[in-house]
Batch of 3 targets.
Target 1
Amino acid sequence: MFIPLLIIAILLIIFVVVIINNSYTTSIKNAEEKIIASLNEPAIVLNSKLTITSFNQAAENLTGIVAKTAIGQHIDTLLPLQGESSVVPFIVYSEDTDINNNLRHTLTFQRQNGDKKQIMVTTTKHALTSDKTLITLLDTSNEKQLEEMKVDFVSMAAHELRTPLTAIRGYASLMQMNYATKLDASAKELLTRLIVSTTNLANLIDNLLSVSRIERNNLTVEVKPLDLSVIINDIFSSFETQAKTRKQQFTLNMPEKMPLVMADPFRIGQVFINLIGNAINYTPDSGTITVTVADQKDHLQITVQDNGEGIPTEAMSRLFTKFFRVSNSLEQGSKGTGLGLYITKSIVELHHGKISAESTLGKGSIFTVTLPIATAEQQMQNKSQDNGFLTVKNGQGIIVRKKV
Amino acid sequence: MRKILIAEDDFFIRDIYSKVFSLSGYQVEVAVDGLDALEKIKAQPPYDMILLDIMMPRMTGIDVLKNVRMLNTPSKSTPIFIITNLGQQNVIEEAFKLGMDGYILKSQVSPQQIVDEINNFFVTKESTPPSTPPPQS
């Protein structure tokens, strides 16, 4: 009598436990779905096989795919990434990391109607069942568009500023060239300052245009096999007067015969104008500036060394970033724009070269640029492309002449 | 005295170029846009030099260049320089193919440097025999 009762009791207990357990997982599942569904943010849940198990309304709106279609599909089928890496490695990585360690990744998603969306994808390990992954999406298309508009505006404004500025500089230089005899000494001095200031403004505008080209991936280099010695010599001579007036010891060490590098004569010129110009500006009177070119077999190394004020250690990491200026350089007057080194680095990188800086505060700085040497094929290939014209750098401008 | 036609739509820049070339002993004529330039080139005896801006109303400098080289104008073989702020390599190459003689990016070049470059062009031209083949059409 007692034993069957016990069996019934045990069966009853097992039954109750199973029921409770079942309803417990079901309620978790329901809760998860309710939470996902109630989110305003597009959210997707994946199982351990990276197959979609939940897909909320917001995700439907963003992707244009309905949940019915999405559920059961592999994440890579749903979010075809255009030329970019798959989100899977990010998911795998997030499985190995801490729950709070979200991973963000921006990708371009094309809706079925052809609209392209820029989406920021965040992958997180599921909080309750660790074999699941939670993905949230954020539509950043508007931010991208705003960023593009900002760059376009800067570019347009800079272009529009150029014409009137060219007129101002033109009249000032006309006055200096042709009417200087009619001016007294102080008027001449004022005129010189006017010309220096407008030249600075023109450089600033050119820098802004370069930056907007860099931001739009629109800064192009037209590389050809180039003997850098001609360009470096030209730039060196153009700075000699300035160094002499400041009693600086300004030296150029260059091998007699130099291998050709693949470079854009105008753009690479900007690099050395920036580096040498900076060295002269930030080195006190009677200081030393040395430009050294060394042939290092597969690349050419150009160093610009000065014994000037140097750069504080905390500034080194931001040296090549946009609008960054070493704080004490403000006291020097408004020479810099904080764009020069950013542009310089971008140009060097477009040439597949490298740039680095070392500095000791109070002792000086060394900037090093390396550029790959042109291969024999590159040199041959270019000979057939000779268009018969010569590009001449004149100050900071370009004049193109027919080869005589 | 050398006769030069300057086509530039900006009043002040046109004024500066006229002044600086006059001061250097050129006889200057100006055109306020591309079409104005082409009409003057068609109607006038040959110029010794033509300077063209690219971005001009009614007709671009490139189109003026194309027309001058293709049509039978008195200035068909007059040297032409493009003076502009457009520095793209493809524009420069196109202009050379159309038979331009020089290209100056104006933003960083002073007016006097432009005059020097043009003077220099004439010096080089006179010291070398005219062996340049006619431009392709």
Target 2
Amino acid sequence: MKPVDQIAPEGARLAPRARALWFGPVDRPLFGWLHVPEDGRARGGVLLTPTLGIEEVNARYAYRRIADRLAESGFAVLRFDYEGTGDSAGDGDEPGRVGAWLGSIRTALELVRSLELGRTSVVGLRMGATLAAEIVGSGPAVIDDLVLWDPCASGRSFLREQSALWKFARGAESASDGSIETPGLVYSKDTVTDLSECVIASGRGQMAERVLVLMRAGRAGDRRMNERLAMPHAVRRDIEGQEELVHVQPDAAKVPDETVTIIVEWLADAVASAPTRSIDADVVGRSCAVRVTSDGATIEERSVSLGPLGLFGIMTTPLACGEDGGGADAAMVGQLPTVFFSNAGVIDHVGPARLWVQLSRLWAEAGFRSLRFDLSGLGDSPVRAGHPGLEVLSPDGLEDMAEVLHAVLAGDPTNAVLVGLCSGALYALEEGMARAVRGVCAINPILTLNLPEPAVDQASDPGTDVGRREVTGGMKGWVRKMPAYDLINRVVQRLPSSAWWIINRVAVETPPAQRLGQVVDAQVNVLVIAGTDEGRWLRGGESRTFRRLEDTGRFRMEVIPGLEHTLFEWRTREIAAAILTEHVIGKFGSSSRRD
Amino acid sequence: MDEKIRSILTEHGRFPMDVADIGDEEDLFEAGMTSHASVNVMLALEDEFDLEFPEIMLRKSTFESVAAIRAALVELIGT
């Protein structure tokens, strides 16, 4: 048996040469990735400023793609998370968010400048463009090149679109306190006010030596913004594919390769004859972030590269108790299970609305070590050969999870709690059962899904002990082959429990209750959190089976009325988070090995 | 006006069917328009008619049918 690689000691890396790092203030570090050319020599530095909210979720993979493409063209590229977003320090509901985001751009810009690569360029998508313009829009040019990629005319226009999206999706009403709810985020009244003051048209400076404005083809755009950007040194190009990038569900987002090429070529033009300079990416930034909690405990976050493929993850570890006894007991910490958070569909390791980050940090204070990681082809993990990446139901999901568990818990792969949502919950249940882990927390698991069969060129490595398995037990083949399968799927969501009992008997290979029972019977403690529709469908009229599962003491199901499938609605997400926290700390927060 | 509305719905509504086959009163969301697509429809209507839907109109019912969209536009710009 060939052992798989453990955790790479140097932190997370992504081919060809990208390194995960923390930078900026030690007490409020920002997280990012620095991409450098293969030969370690760059002609210029580029900063990618992200957009906000669900648009940022959609665009994450596009930013990874453009960073890779720019590095191939000779640039050192920094992509990063604003303070309180992604893996950076802080929370989204703290005061002074807009100031913090602008400060994050300044800090990131300083890091790129510190590389001393001649030209410094900024590429901003949507609100990333608007915020970047806020930094460089007044006074003399402080950067050489600026790409405004489908910019929002103002923070107000962005919030208006996002608010409308949420209202159309959920029938939500406007809040009376001046806050604005959007998919996954609530912007406080102060943030709304501050963000609304970010207006591209308001600046008077030249922004940069060269400016590229990429606008949606066929759209007139905001008149004042158009006038502001009609500068002699600005080039305007129409682009396609923006709606398919930012105005679709995250699992449907497509990287606009044509736009990526336009940006890369435009930036490359300016450095074609520039000298190259060597960059040692290993000395840029820091490889971990250390945080001292309010009660004096120390928590470390470190990027990790896992298993033979080098899957990306961030490990959150409680390092030491505070002097006043704050934090978890050191002896207990070594005994507690490691918590694993995987992708929610294509949403990367930060989880739905950054929930995995918040829970990792919160649970670390109770002594839990946790890992939030990306399956292959998602987030910042490498893509397996022959696969396209960004697959919601990757046939490699179980193999990825097995490799990660083995890499982190080689000694005892059962001392784990797996947390997942949607397809991530399906993987957690399947792998949890196979490994007989201590616990699984499954949020809105989709148990009528069958994973696609692995590609023929993706045979399992016989030398490892993590051979490929397939998830079966979902909809029967003849059902999936029906011409109106999608339509039927939509209709059946509205059926009562009694009808689900019949469907689960006739159309599903293994009814959800039985599948959950198999996991519980493997001595795994299972918590299922579901919305009303998902709960009705999971129960499927199988109340007797569920009573049996509950009688084992290893099964708990909580139905939260109105829980949005992807947890993008904050009120019900808070309830789900509280249940998860109470359950994990209550069930596994002692050193007892079996519950 | 109807022609422009239907043209925008065709371009931005992402319907799985021909927009011409959707009746004036028919529910566009039931017909397959997603919430994301409806925002694009809203923005395209604002571009086309050079207006901004006020806050009170930013609700699903404003965009739920061709007739509802027409009524909202008439209210904002007249016939």
Target 3
Amino acid sequence: MELTSLSLSEVREELRAKNVSPLEVLQALEERIARVDPAIRGYVARDFESAAAQAKNADVSLPLGGIPIAIKDVINVLGEPCACASKILRGYRSPYDATVVKKLRAAGAIPYGRTNMDEFAMGSSTENSSISPTYNPWDTSRIPGGSSGGSAAVVAADEAFAALGSDTGGSIRQPAALCGCAGLKPSYGRVSRFGLVAFASSLDQIGPFTKTVRDSALMLNAISGLDTQDSTSLDEPVPDYAATLGQDIKGLRLGMPKEYFVGGIDPRVDETVRAAIRHYESLGAEIVEVSLPHTGHAVGVYYIIATAEASANLARFDGVRYGHRAAGAANLLEQYGKTREEGFGAEVKRRIILGTYVLSSGYYDAYYLRAQKVRTLIRRDFTTAFDKVDAIVCPTSPEPAFKIGERSDDPLRMYLADIFTIAANLAGICGISIPCGFAQADGKALPIGLQLLGKPFDEARLLKLAHAYEQSTPWHKQKPVL
Amino acid sequence: MSDFDVRYTARLARLNLSEEEIAKFQSQLSQVLAFVEKLREVDVTGVEPTAHTNPLYNVFREDRERDWFDAKEALANAPRQANGLFVVAKVVE
């Protein structure tokens, strides 16, 4: 068996038993990446030299001691590029570590590579990367999902033991579903965003991609907690998320939101997710129908709030302090306009325009303020549902991976790919996607994701539920042929 | 919504666009705006807006000096710099 096909927990055991050294693990990974990444293009940058130096001094007794971790190109790693897959940040080198990276290092992990993404995390397919698309390991004519498509693809293709991504409207859970790995979006405030390049600050969260639910728990253990550098992080206790795995889930109540099982969903996804829910019933969980009445408004609310916040956050890219600067501008205003024209891709421009418009004088109340009020109603839907159930179970994505290029010029259709994931960000709750089966298309198996949504800061229960399903089904063990 | 004008909004956003982009975004974003019009159907009377989801207000820290970038680190990614300062195009005549 190849070393790289092991899960994070398994490679940790091998390291601790001294069957293998951190440097050997890193070298095996390097070889695997050299062999398969030309077809996947999940990485945008790698630094094995610096990683090897860290591997030589790694302390394998630490929680993630000696384990290489891939990092999405939107999170700052000292001395490494952090371009957010944008032309405007080409050549930029991070002058500091994001808090999550500091925490991973403190746990013994080794950052070694940057993963591809939609530019500034705006997209659902990773086609909006200014560098290259990433290709789905299960069928390289298809998208891996997005925006963290690189992170999902490298974990699925055994090119990483785990990766960090960010999730603003589904950017961890949707690519995890489409690539067949586990993807966790922690609750808003659970994980510090200091050092994450901001897209929509009231929605952004950092979380892990892993091969198993246990690995998600280990990663969450390492990155959670209050950070005084991110004033939205909460001072809530950080339990050992691995401790409750394997406990009985009998009697836990799972809510099936009736609004998520209506038209517009691929019948193979609908059928597979319903089978997964029946499986939960057989494990002793009680299935209860719940209603989230404002579901139909989530995408609209999201594309107002997220673009509004993005238009403000991306104002910092002005060609003054870092990144690209257009040549030959006669004055500062022209310098801003040209720099941003040359530096941003089409989707980022679209969202800046939309966000600027909904915040502009005369439209603020009609769009932004109204969206924030409907957001309150969406949050209330979840609060009411969680009075009745311990977690919600539904599809992650309405369909399996689609073909590259299929909707790159139809923004509205692309936005609807996030229909089941967006509400969790609006409500600040936690969510995870795990593999629950496959759809067959053109002789290829395409992964389908099951989404579990939990109350704010209830990640332990969410992981316990996800683990119970995973351990009693075969899906997570299946690998793409590469 | 009928007033949506990409050219004007782009100016507000300090973002130059080509004529081709203006035409394309005008049509694509008009579709997105038509889609979000649906929010008008929702009764939001008496509903408080949500700015973000945590019950957090006024997070303060002590007003103390912290270890942070020196000038050299802050300027390391600057497209143009001189004498420890960022250099930009002319602002005033």
